[in-house]
Amino acid sequence: MSELKQLVLGRKDVQDLDQEQALPNELMTVNMGPSHPAMHGTVRIVLTVDGERIVASDVHPGYLHRCFEKESESATYTQIFPYTDRLNYVSPMNNNVGYAMAVEKLLGITKEIPRRAEYVRVIVSEVSRITDHLTCVGASAMELGAFTPFLYFLKCREWLYILLEEVSGARLTHSYVRVGGVSKDLPEGWLDRLFARLDEIKVVIVEVEDMLNNNKIFRDRMADIGKFSKEDAIAYGLTGPIARACGVDYDVRKDYPYSIYPEVEFDVPLGTTGDCFDRYLVRIEEIKQSIRILHQCAKQLPDGPVIIDDPRVALPDKRGTYNTIESMIRHFKHIVDGIKVPCGEGYTFVEGGNGELGFFIVADATGRPYKCYCRSPSFVHLASAGKTMHGHLIADIVPIFGMINMIGGECDK
Amino acid sequence: MSEPVPTVTPTVTLTIDGREVTVPKGTNVLEAARKLGIDVSAFCYHPGLSIAACCRQCLVSVEKSPKLQPSCQQSCGDGMVVRTTDAQSTLARKQMLEFTLLNHPIDCPICDKAGECTLQKLYFEHNAEDSRVDVPKVEKPKVVDLGPTVVLDAERCILCSRCIRVCDEVAGEHELEFSNRGDHQILGTAPGASLKNPYSVNTVDVCPVGALTAKDFRFTMRAWELDMTPSVCNGCATGCNMEVHHKNERAWRLVPRHNAEVNKYWMCDEGRLTYHELRADRIAVPMVGGLPSTWNRALDTAARKLAPLLADPAQVAIVFSAQASNEENFALAKLAAAWKVTNLFVAAAAPVPERADDILRDADVNANTAGVRAIVGEVQPLAKLEAAINTGAVRGLVVLGHDLPLGEAAAARLGKLEALVVLAWRELGPAAAGGVTLPVAAWAEIAGTITNRQGFVQRMHPAFPPPGQAIAGWEAITRLASATGAKVPWTHARAVFEDMVAAVPAFGGASWGREARPLQLRFAYSRG
């Protein structure tokens, strides 16, 4: 079986060359990216290749550097939400939530967030996680020639984006979460529309699984490619789907539960080999688990306010702002000076689309952070890319890179 | 032969919020708390004014005292135990704020004070809760012209009386007064008076809300969008310490900065307006013969014209400026020494005796008279230069600054001199005479020092870059020097300063100090 597979890939030939020294064994340096369709536009890899096979690779991130951390130092705590949207721009809600939790921790109001706000946060986060995985799987399949799943998944993603747009007002850059809750409640009948779409998406997932799981080309391009051992995954600090594909049983939602995750049931899928195919399977299963979480959230969603009732944290309503001096001052101070966060430093982390997404904030009692560091999973994962590629063919970079799901905005920050 | 008795200021030790602090006897509790970093809220208290204790915003609990005490009026006693964060005083201060806001108009979006308003700041710090009152607010006059500089919005006024005390105690003119009572109490000018003392805009600075606004700054720029750079006023020899508030590479207002030795908390109205000249008649590029040129061409022209004259330095005169910084004058003195020119003069604007008072304003309207005197020493009177120009004894002239008071005949001959090199930032006087004019940075744009009438060497910081191709004056002088083959070798204002301190005895011991970069007022919480 293994013999046959290598023949199909043409690897037999390479091995023969290697063993028999039929051609002069001269290494060549090839530049891949940053302007390369499979490099997602923003990464450059300097490859040292022996024929078709990669001997060494040097990954150069930074082409999408936006100074997220430095910019944050001159923006109020609330003004940073739009910056976080642009981290992992495929799942902005997760970033919003992670950042808000960090500020709330410093303010000491983590326990006071209204229950409904917590549920709404989880709902939008899980929808975002689904969009993230749909994009990753769809795009990777497309890069391997399977265009149909891409179109199917992107269509599904668009349905969810439209729903998130209904919630937040923006299709991609939601800026929906606020310190102390969320900016506004879910629209009327939104959950019904969401579940109608999720039912359709379930069908699409089955269709795509039928198309991909036993597809010979897809399996050959994914299975045994980019294998990573459990020990290496831990050593490299991998988290999220790609760590779980390696068998690392780590999901922030389970291991360091936050928000209302302890109140919902879901399973954490684990892989065995850590290859690209496992990473794909884990992501598909996580979509299903997210849908499971969403159903439970909808059932348990309590009534009540969606933002904390603390005048120093939450904006006043517009009615008060225009009609009373108290709310006017409060509004003014929020917008111009920002929420005053007491001196201190704190780190919070959530399960983002790609893994552990952390924010470390140092506050100096002013309205803006003294330092706002982001532990972006993509950046950590990219460090493993070089090792993962070794020994593979140039063509294998495409699925490896696709399954790492490097998002430029998050990696380069 | 008795030993001198050391004067010991009696001190008292008290406890504030569980922390002990020792202060000189007579200090009030509010200041003692500030010493500990505890900022008790206050409206009417100002460290530079007498104590009125009329806003009741600084109430604190004092042990063994049945009632809350205004901490600004309560002087510290030995063993006193003060609490500022207990429920009683916190509630009292919060309720005082609720009263203060009862009749306050919803003006923040159109108020000039928004962003640096004490009322906004204190309200937000005191829990920012909503109003419980639903009766209409008392209406008062919105635009009251108090005088040539200040406008009053009576509705915004919280009746703290700081402005009245500023007029009484700083300017010594009783021009403002309260009339009526209760919520009809209103600020206005005293009978027969209008707010026209030369320190009137200080009332705007001390106003904790937007009741008093300066006509000069009103509706021009959002206070919270400004950057602040510390500097020194160049309006007269007093050298009041002030802040340049700037944005978009221009100054929008000057605000006094506390210096107990020079100007305390105050500044005169005339000084505040000096920033306007930063944008009037400015020179942005070198000029030759009245036409815009380039640095290279202007320096070449200057060197070509000066070279034959410098063979006999007696034909050349150099004019220093009592309005330019010490560094510029010192660099020019170095250049004079390198050229061996001994015809040295100092240009200074004529004194204005009627503006002098015992408070801050000085008759000498040159900012750096003391500094230039220390650097150049005794010089010949300008009349001698005038005569030399008229007789043709001086054929080349290098002038620092645009203010060169000469008689008509001499001024008319300036352009006909064989060489006229002017280093100036405004196209006036000699800078407009048609010689070679080199654009230099103005006082708000340089790192440098000036020496005030008391002999204090005070540091100015660059708030924004000079316009166009203008550069710092000392740097322009080094360029002029190297164009003529002389060596005046500096690359930084600090190096000029340090050489100057070493060379001029009057500057002995002066230090350059720390560099100050513009500070965003929005996040500095330095005002309000």
Kindly describe this structure:
- The complex is a heterodimer of chains A (about 425) and B (about 525).
- By secondary structure, chain A is mainly alpha-helical.
- Chain A has helices at about 1-10, 10-20, 70, 80-85, 90-105, 115-145, 145-170, 190-210, 215-220, 230-235, 240-245, 250-255, 275-300, 320-325, 325-335, 375-390, 395-405, 410, and strands at about 30, 45-50, 55-60, 175-180, 180, 345-350, 355-365, 370-375.
- Chain A has a three-stranded antiparallel sheet with strand order 1-2-3.
- In chain A, helix 5 (about 90-105) runs antiparallel to helix 6 (about 115-145), helix 8 (about 190-210) runs antiparallel to helix 13 (about 275-300) and helix 16 packs antiparallel against helix 17.
- The longest helix of chain A has 29 residues, at about 115-145.
- By secondary structure, chain B is α+β, with helices and mostly antiparallel strands.
- In chain B, helix 8 (about 325-340) crosses helix 13.
- The longest helix of chain B is centred in the middle third of the chain and has 16 residues, at about 295-310.
- Chain B is elongated, with a radius of gyration of 28 Å.
- Classes of the chains: A mainly alpha (about 425), B alpha+beta (about 525).
- Chains A and B meet through helix 14 and helix 15 of A and helix 3 of B.
Quick rundown:
The complex is a heterodimer of chains A (413) and B (528). Chain A is mostly helical and 413 residues long. Helix content of chain A is 51%, strand content 11%.
Largest beta sheet of chain B: what is the strand line-up? 15-14-20-19-18-16-17
CATH topology-level name of the largest domain in chain A = Cytochrome-c3 Hydrogenase, chain B
> What's the CATH architecture name of the largest domain in chain A?
Orthogonal Bundle
Q: Spans of chain A of 5+ residues with little confidence (pLDDT < 50)?
A: 1-11
CATH class (first level) name of the largest domain in chain A: Mainly Alpha
- Mean pLDDT across residues of chain A: 87
The number of domains of chain A:
2
**SS-based class of chain A:** mainly alpha
Shape descriptor of chain A: globular
Return Rg of chain B in Å: 28 Å
- Rg calculated over all Cα atoms of chain A: 23 Å
Number of strands of chain A: 8
Mind describing the biggest β-sheet of chain A?
A: 3 strands, antiparallel
Mean pLDDT across every amino acid position of chain B: 90
The protein's oligomeric status is heterodimer
Structural class of chain B: alpha+beta
Strand content of chain A: 5-15%
Spatial arrangement of strands, main beta sheet of chain A:
1-2-3
State the total count of DSSP E strands of chain B.
23
Fraction of residues in H or I helices of chain B: 10-25%
| Fraction in helix of chain A | 40-55%
